[in-house]
Amino acid sequence: MSKIVPITVAYGDGIGPEIMDAVLYILKKAEAQIQVEVIEIGEKLYKKNYTSGIAPEAWEMIERNKILLKAPITTPQGGGYKSLNVTLRKALGLYANVRPTISYSPFVETLHPNLNVTIVRENEEDIYAGIEYRHTRNMRESIKLVSRVGCEKIVRYAFEYAVLNNRTKVSCFSKDNIMKFSDGIFHQVFDEIAKEYPQIKNEHYIVDIGTARLATSPEIFDVIVTSNLFGDIISDEASVITGSLGLLPSASLGNKISLYEPIHGSYPQAAGKNIANPMATILSAALMLEYSFGLLEESAAITNAVEKAMNEGFVTEDINNGTYTTSQVGDKIAEFILAQ
User: Fold this and answer.
1) Spatial CA neighbour of 6 closest among 30, 39, 54, 55
2) I need a surface site. Which of 17, 118, 202, 315 has the fewest CB within 10 A?
């Protein structure tokens, strides 16, 4: 990549600003040819009466630059405004959420040192679309929308991901024993598309059984494809198996725009304390270099530096009771990148 490419950066809420500072410092030291253009989103915008949590000019920048690197934002719980995360995914057409989940044993203690599964989550539909109604004071309704087109896009993406990344099996999780129509079509489409990839093994689990197997024997999975709500839940489950939520990156991908962010939340209780783990956001930036720029070597350099930091004990308190601060971990990872 010779020319400088603009990317949109959102510092987010809570611990977001301090972990994003660490990420941008690392990208600078890695000599990534990017131009950072910052937008403000999330809680500050809600307080300024932007009910969507984002201003019109921010939308314009995201659509122009095509790449958004985002720290976590705070979403009101149990009321208030609609989740901006949901709004971004739907408005930008980010239909595929990709969450690589890897064990970093022996650097990070885990019962499953051979864990290496990628969770591919449908990102626009399902009950997570956030379409809800209050019929009466005591009656609420949430709508679960599932389309054949949406199922086909995400299932095909999962199989293409398996092919491109030398994976051997794709597992589908659904609940079609109960939700015959909505989850039924997801399972049906999975079976149809699986026939187009005879070189890739395929299997289906009722989500109850699948999540139990993931908790006890995660090594048996390679790529998991599932719907929006289930994908969010099982990827958090998988992150606990790795040893920390602070280690999992994610990419939300569409036909034109890509969004990269950690899977964890904004953790407002730790804001400004310089104790948050920046590694998930750093690894999200590595995914950005790989997926959006095709810079495999530069992406690998960041990933290797993160692993070296873990190996040598330069970690925050969430990993093995580490004693290093957010900025110290970022500095050390940058140092390891320069030494490669």
Assistant:
1) 39
2) 17
Q: What is the pLDDT of residue 74?
A: 87
- Write out the two tokens for 22: 């660490």
Q: Which one, of 337, 314, 262, lies nearest residue 25 by Cα?
A: 337
Torsion of CA 252, 286, 7, 254, to 10 degrees: -20
Distances from the Cα of 241 to the Cα of 100, 104, 202, angstroms = 13, 10, 23
Q: What percent of the chain has pLDDT over 70?
A: 98
CATH architecture of 1-93+267-339: 3-Layer(aba) Sandwich (3.40)
Indicate whether 1 pLDDT > 60: no
Written as six digits, the tokens of 298 are: 């530069």
**3-state secondary structure at position 336:** helix
Check residues 340 and 21 and name the one with the higher pLDDT.
21
Is 242 within 8 Å of 100 (Cβ atoms)? no
Q: What is the spatial distance between Cα 13 and Cα 242, in angstroms, rounded to a whole number?
A: 25
pLDDT digits (tens, 9 = 90+) for 85-126: 989 999 999 999 999 999 998 888 889 999 999 999 999 999
3-state secondary structure string, 51-120? CCCECHHHHHHHHHHCEEEECCCCCCCCCCCCCHHHHHHHHCCCCEEEEEEECCCCCCCCCCCCCEEEEE
141 has which bridge partners? 133
**Quick one: which H or E segment has residue 124?**
none
CATH code 3.40.718.10 region(s) in the chain: 1-93+267-339, 111-242
Nearest to 147 by CA among 86, 81, 90: 90
CA 105 distance to own-chain centroid: 21
Cα distances (angstroms) measured from residue 249 to each of 59, 69, 286, 287, 302: 23, 11, 9, 8, 13
